[in-house]
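Lab notebook, bench 4. Continuing the backlog of folding jobs that were queued last week. Each job is logged with the same field layout so the records can be merged later without manual cleanup. Today's entry covers Helix-turn-helix domain-containing protein, a 62-residue chain. Filled in by technician R.K.

JOB TYPE: sequence-to-structure
TARGET: Helix-turn-helix domain-containing protein
LENGTH: 62
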Amino acid sequence: MEEKMQMELLTVREVARRLRVDDTTVRRWIKSGVLEAVTLPHRGKREAYRIKASTLNKLLNL
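JOB STATUS: finished
OUTPUT FIELD FOLLOWS
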């Protein structure tokens, strides 16, 4: 189960819902370095990010 959690990638919206904050807040945390994320190729105005479930769990356990 630990391996599955390390490989699971969450969207900004999924992380925001779990933390009960706005998507913009999650994006701000990513840009400021508070939350580690993978940047995906994109064509729109916003950066596309994915956050590892294990990273989110570390943040919640602080």
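OBSERVATION: The chain has four helices and three strands.
SIGNED: R.K.
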